[in-house]
UniProtKB/TrEMBL annotation:
Protein name per the record: Peptide/nickel transport system permease protein
Main location: membrane
Entry-linked Pfam families: ABC_tran (PF00005), BPD_transp_1 (PF00528), oligo_HPY (PF08352), OppC_N (PF12911)
GO biological process: peptide transport; transmembrane transport
Entry superkingdom: Bacteria
Region annotated Disordered, chain positions: 270-290
Topological category with respect to the lipid bilayer: Peripheral membrane protein; Multi-pass membrane protein
Keyword RNA-binding appears in the UniProt entry: no
Cell location: Cell inner membrane; Cell membrane
Keywords: ATP-binding, Cell membrane, Membrane, Nucleotide-binding, Transmembrane, Transmembrane helix, Transport
SMART domains the UniProt entry points to: AAA (SM00382)
Domain ABC transmembrane type-1, chain residue ranges per copy: 73-262
Gene3D superfamilies in the cross-refs: MetI-like, P-loop containing nucleotide triphosphate hydrolases
Amino acid sequence: MRLAREYLRRPLGVIAAAFLVLVALAVIAAPLIAPYDQLRMDLGHSLALPSAKHWLGTDRLGRDVLSRLLWGGRVSLGGLAEALSVAFAIGVVAGLIAGYVGRGVDNAISRTTEVLMATPGIVVLLMVYGISNNNAHLGMITLGVLCSPSITRVTRAAARAVSQEVYISSAEVLGMGRLRIVFDHVLPNIWGPIIVSTAVLGAVILGIQGGLNYINLGVNPPAASWGGMVSDGQRVLAQQPWLIVPSGLLLTLVIMALMLTADGLRDATASNRSRPARAQAAAARKPSAQAGAGQADASAALSVRGLSVSFSGLEVVRNVSFDVRDGRTLGIVGESGCGKSVTASAALDQLGPGSRIDGEVVFGGVDLNHAPRRVRARTRGAGIAYVSQDPMVALDPCFTVESQLGELIGRHERLRGSRRRARALELLRQVGLPNPADTAARYPHQLSGGMAQRVSIACALAGRPRVLIADEPTTALDVTIQGEILDLLRTLQGETGLAIVLITHDLGVVADLCDRVAVMYAGEIVEIADVESIFDRPAHPYTRGLIDSNPIASKRGSPLPSIPGAVPSPANWPIGCHFGERCRFRTPQCSAGPVPLAPVADASPHQARCIRVGELDLASAGQERRS
Ligand SMILES: Nc1ncnc2c1ncn2[C@@H]1O[C@H](COP(=O)(O)OP(=O)(O)OP(=O)(O)O)[C@@H](O)[C@H]1O
């Protein structure tokens, strides 16, 4: 375990932990190793200093201090274990639910936590001890409940951060259940901070418990406890100052050791949190697919109709419609911030809190946007799979490839043991990994960018999906690997009939892989057509601008053309044409009102969102500019 190895590199932490283990073992073995009974009095030898007979001396009643420390440890450490277990169990469960489920549940748990934190704990404890006739167990359980908010808050914050990682949404998209994700992906990634805060809390609880025992709460004299022994020593401080030393020192050393252990764990966790290296990031095509607004296309593998997305009331994607058929690829292209990823995430039902999705996402005849949660969850991974642009982030760094792939196979196909392993190797072979067994045994950080992307494609294929949404799958890869991944997607499509939605900035990739292209600008589709029409007869000035800005199409030696200005943010979308501000063909009418997406010719599947579509000759406009 990497955390343990990192911890062992910290000598102070190791000494502190060893000390705690030693004390705990000695306390457990008290009946065997204590030289005297903790209650055996010898009034002739009261308040004796350390000697060969009594290594740590005796107390007021001549009882052996070492034996009482060992027996008293059972009360003190036992109580600590009891309170800490309660705080840990409540804190972790509540923190996980709040951090991972979020929304209303998070609110309820956070408010309850705040109420607990504001409760005067010592008053509650005094009441509990009073009502329960000094019941030590009830006192420690109450202390555990009162202390649980500190673990709840740490767990919630860590779970919230991890649940926003791409590998968690990938696991959701690949169809894994929530409970499974929590146990397999969230928890293993947040143990570090939880353990650290538990160790710190241990020190705090021991201090509080020592104080309670000091005033004889939670312990029934003459039974020993460390806090009670400090109290005994304090009472005879003037006569025998030594008596307070063993119990006071031991209590202080154990609290310090707990803090040092927590420090060591925090440092080890920080070093252990290695982010996998970021992987790195064009170009054949087939006949056309279908598109357009109106009714969902029943023959399409995925049909999106009138999809609009808002975050906290602000619309970022407006009225997007497209279809993709089996064995076909739809490219969604546009500059950064145009809404490509939000469109994909909406289709996958992967938008976070505060989002609102309107419109239809029809898969297998079912509108997923209005389907029960169970149907949507089942469709993710098995029906619609997802490949992200950064495969390293999409894979959980804590598990080997085989374990991650195996888990998905187990879920989708209910295979176990050797059949599951065989399917995992088959998938790795299918995505072109030359040595599947070797790759299966590796952790994500041991994979190159290209290998990681192949593994994430294998994960996506585990559910034998009908549709694959690939969000810039080659952006993070170097140019030779980009070509290989595109070839792989093409081959897989040929073998399995996958419908692919490919999100990209790269027109080279579009030309290479797509049948149909949707050009997005500022939240809207501004042009949609088959790939030949887009490149040969663009009908929207933005599409023309994108093609002209492609370095491959530019004339050697002349400056690379670009589209002046920037994409407006959703808060600043104009009333009229969204592209108007940057368009060299704009007229006053362009900003008069919303521009509809309309066929460029009667009933043509080639559609553009431009009022001047009939009068502009954008095909030759590009040639003019290049010549
Ligand atoms: N969770 C969110 N909350 C609020 N606004 C968001 C959120 N996610 C995205 N947006 C906004 O939605 C718009 C579209 O973002 P999106 O990520 O879909 O763009 P994109 O075209 O995919 O860009 P890129 O190519 O850089 O990924 C942007 O203005 C972005 O700021």
